[in-house]
């Protein structure tokens, strides 16, 4: 609720703060248990920052994050440590996030050491079980990350995240670095695991077709703000925000006969240091009205949990 993350910019000899990158600038959002909430937007819109702030991997500047009724920004270090087990993250580049000097077994077992969950024989059995769950050959336990393909490495990353029996996983572009041919395999695996363990996902991606595949609801972000949130099919068939419409119009449609107007977004994404006044999208919006540069539209529920922040509605 009202979540903000500002990164200070320093300048001059004294390294004084001369401004802020307003990466996340007043976000209101809810995620339902065992659902997948897709979070989409162009690179630099604040998606990853939001994901990390939710897990407290970075400290929010302002706002509230409530998990099961508890404001986690008020938790002590000890309490936060307990909660960490329930919240995991999977990264875009499985190679960069796996220690190259550790074997697969050690990588998957490490979270169990950190949280004191299992040791010795029990831990070994659990590692084998996890490798099995993510579809990796248990023979691989003593191998190193570089011996695996991208898809296999992401499976290792997923096994590591599952090692602590999490409830929610922030998935930050988990298939973006993978070949198209293995993407759907990894997505299908993630869906199976969700069913099996009742996992909740916040699925971050710049790719609307990937998000469509996996999400129950989709949330669209632009320059640190949420501009639209809705149930998936509703959002893809009835996008309301002009930015969402433009993003969707850029997805190629398989049927060459189907006609759809391609909306070309003019200009670059403005800087999050000095975002435009009023509606942040007004510099690129073909429907912009005088009010748009003066007054910030608030995120409104226009029915059936379809939220949009635009003066047109
Ligand atoms: Fe466009 Fe105005 Fe709506 Fe912003 S508020 S998206 S500028 S019509
Ligand atoms: Mg990112």
Key phrases:
313 residues; Rossmann fold; eight-stranded mixed sheet; two-stranded antiparallel ribbon; 12 strands; binds iron/sulfur cluster; binds magnesium ion
Any overview of this molecule?
- The chain is globular and about 70 Å long.
- Strand 7 (168-172), helix 6 and strand 8 (200-205) form a beta-alpha-beta unit.
- The relative contact order is 0.14.
- 30% of the residues lie in helices and 20% in strands.
- Strands 6-7-8-3-9-10-12-11 form an eight-stranded mixed beta sheet, sandwiched between helices. A two-stranded antiparallel sheet has the order 1-2.
- The two termini are 22 Å apart.
- The protein has helices spanning 47-54, 77-84, 104-114, 120-133, 150-162, 180-197, 208-214, 232-237, 242-249, and strands at residues 3-11, 16-27, 36-40, 66-67, 70-71, 87-90, 168-172, 200-205, 217-222, 225-231, 300-301, 307-308.
- The chain has a single domain (3-86, 166-308), classed as 3-Layer(aba) Sandwich (Rossmann fold).
- With 313 residues, it is an alpha/beta fold.
- Helix 5 runs parallel beside helix 6.
- The chain binds iron/sulfur cluster and magnesium ion.
- Iron/sulfur cluster is lined by residues 241-242, 279, 281-282, 285, 287-289, 292, 297, 310-312.
Summarize the structure.
With 313 residues, this protein is α/β, with parallel strands linked by helices. The chain has helices at residues 47-54, 77-84, 104-114, 120-133, 150-162, 180-197, 208-214, 232-237, 242-249; strands spanning 3-11, 16-27, 36-40, 66-67, 70-71, 87-90, 168-172, 200-205, 217-222, 225-231, 300-301, 307-308. The protein has one domain: P-loop containing nucleotide triphosphate hydrolases (Rossmann fold, 3-Layer(aba) Sandwich).
């Amino acid at each position: 609720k009202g979540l903000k993350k500002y990164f200070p910019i320093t300048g001059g000899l004294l390294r004084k703060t001369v401004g802020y990158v307003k990466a996340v600038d007043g976000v209101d959002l809810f995620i339902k248990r065992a659902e997948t909430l897709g979070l989409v937007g162009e690179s630099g819109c604040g998606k990853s920052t939001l994901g990390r702030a939710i897990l407290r991997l970075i400290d929010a500047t302002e706002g509230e994050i409530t998990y099961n009724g508890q404001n986690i920004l008020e938790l002590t270090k000890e309490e936060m440590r307990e909660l960490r087990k329930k919240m995991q993250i999977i990264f875009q580049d499985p190679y960069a996030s796996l220690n190259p000097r550790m074997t697969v077994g050690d990588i998957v077992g490490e979270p169990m050491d950190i949280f004191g969950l299992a040791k010795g024989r029990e831990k070994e059995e659990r590692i084998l079980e996890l490798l099995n769950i993510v579809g990796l050959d248990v023979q691989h336990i003593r191998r190193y990350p570089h011996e695996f393909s991208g898809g296999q490495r992401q499976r290792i990353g997923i096994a590591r995240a599952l090692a602590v029996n999490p409830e929610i996983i922030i998935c930050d572009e988990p298939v973006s670095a993978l070949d198209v041919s293995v993407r759907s395999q990894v997505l299908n695996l993630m869906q199976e695991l969700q069913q099996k363990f009742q996992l909740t996902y916040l699925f971050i991606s710049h790719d609307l077709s990937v998000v469509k595949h996996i999400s129950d609801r989709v949330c669209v972000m632009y320059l640190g703000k949420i501009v639209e949130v809705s149930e998936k099919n509703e959002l893809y068939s009835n996008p309301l925000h002009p930015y969402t419409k433009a993003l969707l119009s850029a997805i190629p449609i398989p049927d060459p006969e189907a006609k759809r107007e391609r909306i070309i977004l003019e200009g670059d994404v403005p800087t999050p240091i000095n975002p435009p006044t009023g509606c942040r999208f007004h510099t690129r919006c073909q429907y912009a009205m005088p009010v748009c540069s003066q007054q910030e539209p608030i995120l409104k529920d226009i029915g059936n949990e379809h939220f949009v922040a635009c003066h047109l509605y």
